[in-house]
Design brief:
With 454 residues, this protein is α/β, with parallel strands linked by helices. It folds into two domains: 168 residues, no CATH class; 263 residues, TIM Barrel, CATH 3.20.20. The chain has 14 helices and 22 strands. The strands form five sheets. Strands 7, 8, 9, 10, 11, 14, 15, 16 and 17 form a nine-stranded parallel β-sheet that branches. Bound molecules: zinc ion. Zinc ion binds next to loops.
């Protein structure tokens, strides 16, 4: 006898809606099975994407308890998730922006509901942890390299017009620029951080300097991705040529991309990026606001809302960019408190914290940004975070998603298999067990809380 299966069932009569539910369960690390009325198993919890009579009758045959049939739409609003994953959530909502990833907060409500279903039946909930080695969150530093030798652009003068303007120009000319990338490498290297640098495929007269920088970054194991030019977001040929051009220079495949100025046209930009072989994108975020453009703080598979299909490519949501702070012209304490709010929320939700610091502002002309960057690195290195490149983050997230976890509960013992060992968490009403599995099969005995009530 194998005991009770510890898997969530999803009634999948509508593939498109089921994919949305699956995406959210992946974020939470919950193992699930798609079911129909021929599935011969009893599930502790069954999820229907939307309230539908026909699905409900399938669920009630497969679920032990009618209370344990959850309607995703009633908890999470499938429409909001559909718009978010499709890249259309922020249409018309600009006035209500906050830095809180509202949908990820709701994802946790779903998790709590699923837990309640398991606990009602005195069953433990077993799921995959978010990040390697039980780290609380993932932190990714990225750098858009708009110019190798930063020059002053009009947009950066915003808020500096006035008496300070002349002083600003004078300081800019006086102070040395052009060394910023080396400074970033030094700062990160001494904290043992590897970041992701996003480059255009061509920097004109600075070509030799560009080759030397690429060589240095490669030798030091930093990641290199494409910073695609201004109009490439709506032109697959431009995008493909830029990818090839930079790949020739770095002599390896590029996995990741960020569009210059975050120009984006969903779903087309994702389509082009995926078609030409990118694994992840870092573009889908706000220019003039901090926070999460899709209200989700996990890496996610966007959906093509026209073709009604899920992309294989991953969007890793960037929630902080130095340019935004300059644009808003706010003081150090204000920016720091925004960063700490973001940090706090992401840590609690176990999400992914992606920041974008341009080399252009890592000089004495922008003391506030320089200070912010180094103070943030000091802060995150003290935390229990997995600090890694965007490429590594993507590989982990895809591996975790592909990993199958199946477990059965009998006589207070969980026996199970995992297709590739990774950290798992087991929750009951009175204990939380964290295990960094090293083997593909496991057997875990729980506290006998029936005989020893607390
Ligand atoms: Zn740029």
């Amino acid at each position: 006898m194998r005991g009770q299966k510890l898997t969530v069932g999803i009634v999948s009569t509508n593939k498109f809606l089921t994919n949305i539910v699956k995406e959210i369960l992946h974020h939470l690390g919950i193992s699930f099975e798609e079911i129909d009325n021929k599935t011969p198993v009893n599930f502790p919890c069954v999820i229907l994407p939307v309230q539908k009579e026909e699905d409900f009758s399938i669920a009630s045959k497969l679920c032990q308890n009618e209370e344990n049939i959850l309607v995703f739409d009633n908890i999470c609003s499938i429409k909001s998730f559909c718009l978010a994953l499709g890249g259309f959530l922020d249409q018309g909502q600009i006035a209500n922006r906050s830095i809180e990833p509202k949908l990820s907060v709701i994802e946790f409500k779903l998790l709590e509901n699923i837990k309640d279903c398991f606990f009602r039946l005195d069953l433990p909930l077993i799921r995959k942890w978010y990040w390697p080695s039980f780290t609380d969150a993932c932190f990714v530093v990225t750098h858009d390299i708009d110019s190798l030798d930063p020059i002053l652009r009009f947009s950066e003068l915003k808020g500096k017009i006035g008496l300070n303007w002349l002083k600003f120009i004078f300081n800019f000319i006086r102070k040395r620029t052009g060394q910023e990338i080396f400074k970033l490498v030094r700062e990160e290297n001494r904290r043992q951080i590897k970041s992701t640098f996003l480059f255009f495929p061509d920097y004109g007269k600075d070509h030799n300097k560009f080759l030397a920088i690429l060589d240095l970054l490669k030798r030091m194991n930093f990641e290199i991705g494409l910073h695609a030019s201004e109009f490439s977001y709506c032109n697959q040929n431009i995008l493909e040529n830029e990818k090839k051009q930079l790949e020739e220079l770095v002599d390896s495949d590029l996995k990741g991309i960020r569009q210059h100025q975050l120009n984006f046209l969903p779903p087309f930009t994702w389509r082009y990026q995926e078609k030409i072989g990118f694994n992840y994108d870092l573009s889908f975020s706000h220019n003039i606001d901090f926070g999460f453009r899709s209200d989700i703080c996990f890496p996610y598979h966007p959906i093509d809302i026209i073709e009604k299909k899920r992309f294989n490519l991953i969007e890793i949501p960037t929630s902080f960019m130095d340019w935004t702070a300059l644009y808003k012209d706010i003081n150090y304490d204000e920016i720091w408190s925004i960063l700490m709010k973001l940090d706090d929320t992401i840590e609690k939700l176990h999400g992914c914290f992606v920041v974008n610091f341009h080399n252009s502002y890592q000089n004495q002309n922008f003391p506030l940004i320089e200070r912010l960057y180094s103070q943030l690195l000091d802060h995150v290195t003290k935390k229990n975070y997995w600090i890694t490149t965007a490429g590594e983050c993507t590989s982990w997230w895809l591996k975790r998603e592909k990993t199958e976890l199946s477990a059965f509960f009998l006589k207070n013992t969980i026996k199970g298999n995992i297709s590739s060992p990774l950290p798992i968490v087991i929750e009951t009403t009175d204990e939380i067990i964290k295990l960094d599995l090293k083997k593909t099969s496991f057997s875990i005995k729980l506290n006998d809380n029936v005989n020893n009530p607390k």
